[in-house]
Each structure stands twice: as C-alpha cells, then as structure tokens.
Amino acid sequence: MLTINENKGFTIIESLVAVTILVLAITGALSAIQTGISSYIFSKDQIIAFYLAQEGFEQIRNIRDENGLKNQNWLAGIAANSSDPCYFGNACTVSPVFSNLASRCGSGAPGSCQVVRQDTATGFFGYNSSWPATVFRREIMLTEINADEVSILVTIDWSKGIVNRQFRAKENILNW
Question: Which one, of 87, 81, 89, lies nearest residue 103 by Cα?
Fold first, then answer.
C-alpha cells in the first residue's frame, strides 16, 4: 500500500498573509472610529460656538430694548459715545448671568477678550472668575450703518490642540 503524506498545516507565508489582512482590517476600523470621534467633537464645539454667538446678539438686543423702555438713547451703555464699552471699533463682551451690561475687552482691541467660563453645576456660560475656563473666546464688535441701524459682528474663537477654529456671525439691529 502506498501512503501519501499530506501537509495539513499553514505555511509561514500563509500565516503572514493572514496576519497582515487582520492587521489592515483592524487598522481601518480604528481609523474610522477616530475620524468619527473627531467629527463629533468638532460638531459639538461648532454648536456651542453658534449658541454663544446667538447669546451675544440677544444680550445686545436686550440692552437696546431696555434703553427704549427707559426712554434713553437706544445705544446707551453700548455705543452711544466713545466711553461706552462697545463703541464702534472696540471689542466688547456681555455676560447675561450676572449683568446685562456690556464690558470692554482688555484694551478694546480685537482679540483682547478673555475666555468664556462655564459653571459646571448649572452649565451657564459667563465670565465669573471662579468658574473653570473653556476653550471659547467671544468678541462683539459694532459698526454704525446709519443713525438708526447698527451691525453686530460676533466672533467665537477656540482651539483644540494645534487647530484653531473660528465662528463668525453678523446681524443688524435697528432703533425702534
């Protein structure tokens, strides 16, 4: 009788090919997961920036409306004269949690605003120095269009690692 010896195992080449395919599959999956997480974080930051910008518009509108109720100049406390915090060309900010008054950023030059802080208990954003700092910086600038119309530009800057991001929104308000 004749016995045939059949090799019933993997050769080293077959094993290396199998391991390579497995490593490529795992690397691809991990890369997709990392991209998804990065996209999620960026989207979350963009949404926060959008709402911080919207809050800036709302606070300027609230000050304007309060001035109307008090029969004052509609830009009083905002940009009625050169000593006001948001006078045309100056960077300013508002903190709705503690005060609805605007305040000038540092030197008033663009880029001199302090970072926005967040209360971990309530989730409110503001400028209370006891709250932890966030990565966001809000800056409000006004431009006079005519005596009864002002353009508001709100810029939100933030950075994650070495990547700097910016969200800008512009809106006009009128003297009513």
Answer: 87
Contact predicate 109/139, CB 8 Å:
no
Q: Is residue 5 part of a domain?
A: no
What is the sign of the dihedral through the CA atoms of 55, 56, 59 and 60?
A: negative
Residue with tokens 């308000």: 173
User: 118 with 138: CB under 8 angstroms?
Assistant: no
- Per-residue pLDDT tens for 46-80? 999 999 999 999 999 999 999 999 999 999 989 98
Length of the chain: 176
Which range of residues forms the domain containing residue 137?
12-174
pTM exceeding the 0.70 threshold for the entire prediction: yes
E-strand spans in the chain? 92-94, 102-104, 115-118, 125-126, 133-146, 149-160, 163-174
Asked whether residue 2 is domain-assigned, the answer is no
170 belongs to a structural domain: yes
Number of structural domains, the chain? 1
Can you name the residues that pair with 156 across neighbouring β-strands?
138, 167
The fraction of the chain above a pLDDT of 70, given in percent, is 93
Residue 30 inside a domain? The answer is yes
